[in-house]
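Hi R.,

Here's the chain you asked about this morning:
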Amino acid sequence: ARTVHIVGAGVAGLAAAVKLVQAQMKVVVHEATAYPGGRCRSYFDRAIGMTIDNGNHLVLSGNHSVLGFADAIGSAAGLVGPDHADFQFADRESGERWTLRINDGLPWWILDRSRRVPKTRLREYLRLARLVLTKDDVPVATAIECSGPLYQRLVHPLLLAALNIEPREGSAALAAAVVRETLMKGGKACRPLIARDGLGPVLIEPAIRHLREREVDVRLEHELRELRFTGENVAELDFGGDTVVLGQDDVVVLAVPTHAAVALVPGLSAPQGYRAIANAHFKVEVPANTPPILGVINATTEWIFAFPGRLSVTISNADRLMDVPRAMLAQSIWQDVSRLSGVAGDMPPWQIVRERRATFAATPGENAKRPPPRTKWCNLVLAGDWTATGLPATLEGAARSGHRAADLVLSG
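And here is the predicted structure, written out as tokens:
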């Protein structure tokens, strides 16, 4: 029987595996580490004595690939959020607070001052259309004016979180895709969803369970060392201790991080620049009125997520914070969190998680290097948020790439 070997058990690889198993394909999953999930996983942290995620990933209700994946593995109920697309924001400098309330359906909220961002005018929203209409992939600053209240209070934080790069330098094509799939579709596509019990329990562990229940062989600590090619095909997978010889109908879905893919696939075009993300976690009694997500401007902190017994912070484009001493960084973030959440007192138990190569740098130049899922080898397909998905490196991009790789296998 035809076997599909999926190399890499991050969201892209797992999404591909789940879709292929639905189509009754024989699937084997190989993961280099002892823990599936890649950059989307949970682990028990001894410093704060609780389970935390290695990154805070926000899912929006319009992220159909992630939600489809969660649905297929029976865990969609674990993604929770408000009934409507309400986003609370705070300005650390001025102390101002406001709620962005995006209505369902056509975006008439931009006509209503009580719903839109304070101090913004209708024409600023209409100017955003230029971003969506940009034909060539240019920096965002070439496509739209990067100033004014709407840019500072909504467009900048939204694009910074989605692209993980200073928006001015970011790819207008990727920024446009984000705006098109969220703000332009109205509130039904913009409801924020959080994995309250953690990303691992909601997206990764149920996926592994789902696959194993369907007799999929999930091999952890099984690192691919080399792909061996014969003519137009991958012939062997060398895992160091053992080698898998592929049958003539077998297929490989390579769903590994960029640097690993470049080392395995000769002549592969891929983004080379990266951007970092910093996360902080504080073990605290969370006040009852704390919003599940708070967007912050004019501060080190960018987003504060409220979980049971914990406040977590995400800071994008965080290369500048990679070498700051951990305790100093934690103290600086805690000052923001304490002031904005109303939790007074000394810094509670904390943890800083920094990911140097969190995403590829979403510039027009790096975006152009992203490879398509098809390769020049007949039985080798690529998946991963760094491949040419048309989206930035997000959970949705990862899941979409996995689904697309599965579709290519099934159609081939």
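One quick note: Residues 86 and 101 are 5 Å apart (CA to CA).

Cheers,
M.
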